[in-house]
UniProtKB/TrEMBL annotation:
One of its GO terms (biological process) is fructose 6-phosphate metabolic process. The active site is at residue 144. Non-allosteric. This is Pyrophosphate--fructose 6-phosphate 1-phosphotransferase. It comes from the Bacteria. Pathway: Carbohydrate degradation; glycolysis; D-glyceraldehyde 3-phosphate and glycerone phosphate from D-glucose: step 3/4.
Amino acid sequence: MWNCLIAQSGGPTSVINASLSGVIASAIDSPKIHTVYGAINGIQGVLKHQLINLTSIFANEKGKLETLKTTPAMFLGSCRYKLSNIQEDETEYNLIFDVFARHKIKYFFYIGGNDSMDTVLKLSRYAKTHHKDVQIVGIPKTIDNDLFGTDHTPGFGSAAKFVATTMLEISYDTYIYDLPSVTIVEIMGRNAGWLTASSALARNTYNASPDLIYLPEVPFSTYDFLNDLKCLQETKKNIIVAVSEGIKDKDGHYISATNNPCSDAFGHAKLSGTGKTLEHIVSKSLKCKVRSIELNVLQRSAMHIASLTDIDEACSVGNKAVQYALDGLSGIMVTIIRTNNDPYTIEVDYVPIEKVANKEKNIPKDWINDAHNDVTHDLLDYMSPLIHGEPQIDYKNGLPVYLDIQHLHSDCKS
């Protein structure tokens, strides 16, 4: 009998552990898989041979798997590590597949976003070229919703629900004061504005905020921005703005406090202070009360406001990944296909990893208004079903009960 190995990578979400639970449950139930292993800190954990036995942790305790579904972030830890180009150096690949061989790993599951799918692509190509009998399957996750080839990504619905809820609560906080104000809410999104756009879900019969939304898919003009605010001030006292951290001017320069942002291992700019930059511009120009709020990492793992739809779908893609691997499929990413919007229904499918890796899905331009300061109803209709439902979470001493992650503490690693 063969074993399987699971790893997680990239930024955390509220539901990436639900995908992990789906893989573990299906793998443990399969007569073709003997032991389920987990790599600590993604592909780096494989390279360092830091594996834990997930079968021994979860096989006889179904309650733990249920708790795993509603434990935020990554039970196995994460990394942002770019494998070397195969044509230039195969050292890392030889090490990885040596670990696979030593532990009789026939199925490898990598749960992650855009950069993680680059890893899936490289490993699957190496396996094919060197005739390695290992099925390699990518499982999607990202709050940014920018993965190509899938209707949406597990993790986005819960993050969108957090953003919309937070925006509604910010509105309540803002409207209590009887003085002119501008509140700027900075939301994650380097090149794709899905998460910022989700702030519009906060609107209802009595709340029109956010009043303005600025996304990285279209150029940002400081002049137009200030003019938008001035026009609104003629009819509204308290103005709330949602802005993506990655907005850029017509020349492609980030509207950020960091003039020359450094990059991570995958070449992505590390942004900082977009909201604060706009706060200074507005304060100087409009002479009114201005506040900027950066949601930052809070929007990534807010399990207390997660979407049950998101959790269920994340678990389903984990289940399906195991089925595809057992069927002999490799070099694929599991995907979600929307089959109907009202009532909302989906199917789980897959695409070749070549159609996903190193690509990015942006908001369609016709889902952004002509003034580039708001979104259309088509985008709202797309996002709305993804935030529905609330999970049942156990509490103890007033706080949610999550799984123990002591194995991630640096002083606990061998």
